[in-house]
Write a structure and sequence with these properties.
single chain, 279 residues, mainly beta, Barwin-like endoglucanases, Immunoglobulin-like, 2 domains, 6-stranded mixed beta barrel, 5-stranded antiparallel β-sheet, 9% helix, 32% strand
Amino acid sequence: MSLKLLLAVLLQPSLAKVYQGTMSMWSETKDTLVAYKSEGSACKFADRLMGGLNSATAQTPYITSKNYCAVNRGLFGNGEICGRCYRLTYKGGHEQGLGRPGSDVVQIVDSGSWATFDCHMTAFNKITDYNTGFFPVSYEEVPCNTASQGPVVGVLQYDYYWTKFVFSNLRYPVKSADLIIGGKTHHMKLVGGYWGAWTGPITGETSFKITEENGYQVTFNNCFGGWKNRKTGDACYTNGRSKAALPPPEPEVGSSLRGAKHNTSNATEMEAPETPLYP
């Protein structure tokens, strides 16, 4: 093998692994799975405490278009899968010959499905051209498309010591998260779909640093107007995302603030040109 050919093989991007599973459906009601019984489902993106389907964390392209699914307990784990996107493909082969081959990308918002994936009727129909039953599908992880407002962290619930948060509108699920208050770092814990931090009595400027599964880092600065001002339903946005192994990016010209009340985040974005962060 020539040196050029060897380098081409070694440097080509790795392909996502394709798995085999099954897919079923839930009803077509607007809040199925993602806001089931107004509890925000396992991943809490549309929890009623934060505003249900109007929550800042529920405004991903997949939730607003009803392209979302629950997964079985084996895939869900401790919630590490929340927000992950998969391409589901039905190639035919249903025992009764139902439906027609199709494919689409969905986002994971809940757990407890009987099949590998239980999807909102909208997504189920796009993939199978059918409205009920269990279908054999292949699935592979893909980066999520994101809404233009950028990554967001929402306050799910809080008391004096323990505060729950939901991260959303990311390309990949959150691998690790830190909460920084007044310069002190509090390592956050994943608890079945939401992230929590035990802080005790503390005040100060508030920010977050999270790392996605693919190694990219997201920073949220100057959130909520300070820690003592945080309230359930508050949201903090950022425009920024960077790869730790890469040199710092040049500041974007004319970058603007996007966010809910009390947010003054103003970070910069670094992303490979062929995979824009915000379509």
